[in-house]
Please model this.
Amino acid sequence: MVSLNFCGPKCSHCCFVLSIWGILMLVVLGALFKTNSRALRSDSSDNTVEDMHNIGQNCFIAAGLYGATLLISFWQMRLSRKAAQQRAELRTENSYSSY
Amino acid sequence: MGTLWRSQEMGRAKLFVPSEVSYEVVSALGDIGLVQFIDANPDLNAFQRKFVNEVRRCDEMERKLRFFESEIEKLKLEINGAEEAASMPAPDMKGMHSMEAEFDRLEREMKEINNNEQVLKKQNLELTELHEILNRTAMFFDEAESATAALSADTADSSNTPLLEADERSGQLAFVTGVIARERVPGFERLLWRACRGNVFLRRVPIDEPVHDPTTGDEIHKEVFIVFYQGEQLGNRVKKICEGYDATIYPCPNLPSKRRELREGVKTRILDLQNVLHRTEDHRRHVLSTIAFKLGGWIVQVKKIKAIFHTMNKFNVDGTRKSLIAEVWYPLARVDEIQHALRVGTSRAGSDMQAILNDIPHDSKPPTAYFTTKFTRGFQSIVDAYGVATYREVNPGPFTIITFPFLFAVMFGDLGHGFLMMLVALMLVLKEKSLKNFDGGEIWDTMFNGRYIILLMGLFSMYTGFVYNDIFSKALSFGSGWSISEEEIPMNITGSATLELRAPYLDLNGTLHNGDLRHAYAFGIDPMWQVSENKLTFTNSYKMKLSVILGVLQMLFGVVLSLFNHRFFKKSLRIWHEFIPQTLFLSCIFGYLVICILYKWSTPLDDFPNQSAPSLLIMLINMFLRFGLPPPKEQVLYGDKEGNLQGKVQMALVVIAVVCVPWMLLTRPLILRSRQKRREREAEARVRAGMLQGSDDDHDDGHGDEEHSFGEMMVHQAIHTIEFCLGCISNTASYLRLWALSLAHAQLSEVLWDMVLHNGFTSWYLLFCAFAVWAVLTIGVLLIMEGLSAFLHALRLHWVEFQNKFYDGNGYLFTPFHFERVLKGQDDDAA
Model:
């Protein structure tokens, strides 16, 4: 069977944390852009309300993308955990096979 | 705090232990870890000591355990039992004997198994190789046979008899078959050709599967070869060459039928042998897995036993009373636990001979001991890393718990970064039980041991982040105090509203060009500053003044702590002629500056005498340069408009500060000298009066260990004074690093936002990538690098600027005999 586990346990944990951070922060940022937050006005290129709304939209889409990476990394974490379990079982089987 | 304020009071005692219970008593003391043994025979080397044989036996046991460990590691089995053994008391002498016997038996068994296995493997190798030869050479013979089938005649059954007799021109042909390692083939071939002048015929075939060397277990690629030659002499030469190249020669019958027979025989023998091999392998695995089940515990137990004997080697032997005597340091507060351990030890040995702990007078310097918890340990180790406190002096440890994370946070102030740091530390703290035994190298250990420090650093950074109103370089707003009207914004051509383009310029006086200050912001810096044009001017001034205030307060606190030291060690001279002038000097110059800063902050511009805010730095410099003169008009901070009051106050302060310098420098040495002179005169008078006895029992306080010559004392005092006076200035300047690092941190996070995340806002896919880059850089640069640098500077401010006001740090650490330390490898003697 071809292993679908293309991301090791460390890598997938990393992506998992990054995704959670990305979702939370981008959603908050998106909401702030939508409400014309003064602190974020310097991030708009031409200072128009429309542009702020667009950026907010972008933030929400990017947050959605991070939602996808969250799912992928969660799936990868499960796969590598399963693989590790199998390896551990194999090892214990080996060491107790003589009993 | 009671236990950390000063180090524990230590007692020096003689410990008398009857020989027959000594092992158990030392073992019980090792469990509680409250007693530091002093080597009673430091001039004896390791081989001259009493328990050298026992130590050697432990070494022998350790060697055997290492042997088991390496065998187990080859099979990749798990080693168990270390956890339980670490919490159990060390085995008694009987247990040690039985362990020794068991290790001996197991080692013999293992060696036997290994030997058997090796012999079997060797046989197996030989048979496989022979099998391969029979298989591979069959091809050569078949070729030859098919060619000569018609002419074939019977041949004798011997390896040296002619093979291809039918071929009359070739005469008597004989052959040798064998196996040779592949890497040796080229050399072998060349030598064979040269030595036999090309009169031999070599054929070879590689064996597909590598064979295993029976002794080392390495994989070796080998080749089967067959050499045809003519004549006895040549045959001998060929065989010698084979020997020289480590080739193994196997006899091979000439007749095809015999060869076939042999092949069948070899095959069945291989099968049998493999059966036996499997069974030995299983047996070996079984033995090793039972060993592995207990090995961890054994290693721990042997380490404990060895540590006990090492400690017993530090005892003196009293032959007449049949007891061992040791000198120990112990914390007086815990004497009950020690007595209890002594009783436990004797009862374990089943004897009624009590061990006795007897206090003795001493004049050596006791070790410094603290009882720390898992929370305070990290902070105490920050202090200890600089220097272990002198016995019973004030320990900066408890204050460090708050001031260290706070000073760090002043430099690291960002709500977002503080929150991330707090999250990481929180994870370490909550999972500390399961992470305790995680082996992640030195960097991991440092971080794990400092988890509570990091947690507090994170929390304090969140607090200062609120004060600075900084979260990832943006500001949080809960209703700014500035009102800026947006109604007047013109509509642009497309009809969408354009927002305020120009950043507002905020004036501390409460006015700006398109709005004004309605009220002060509830907590921290007003968010409007974040978007204002003159943000840096404001925060720089604010942070710079803040760091001077914090620095002066911390230094003043350090000086106050020196008062506690002087009182504790009963040095009244130092209180009057060192502590008081120091406090006056520091508060007259920098204390005054701090008060001025606070006054200036809390005064509206219109309330200054001349409606202009003076520069405090210039005011401080003018205090000395324009001594006696009132400040210029625009420099008046308080009092009348002419600045007469301020001038007089400042003059008085300078006079006090200047007077403090000779006070610090001269009074103490002079008083000490006059006392010494008086004592000498009195002694002379007594000598003249014939009273020679009892001349040295009137030791006064304040100079106990400092009865040196006047010149030496003077130099010492001069250095001390100069260090303090110059230190006040340079240390205050040094505290400006709080501002500098805070500025650097804020600027760096702003740059990161503007250069990375800002560019991503144009489209969603760019944003997706930019956020990842920004997040990684935030962690790598702002959290780790900036965090380390802020940590370093906070460390320096504590070690140098704070601690040099009161801390001596000339003690040495209490190192009790404790199994926990032994097992962690922290005890160097017993390791």
User: Anything to note?
Assistant: Chain A has a mean pLDDT of 84. The radius of gyration of chain A is 22 Å. DSSP finds two helices and no strands in chain A.
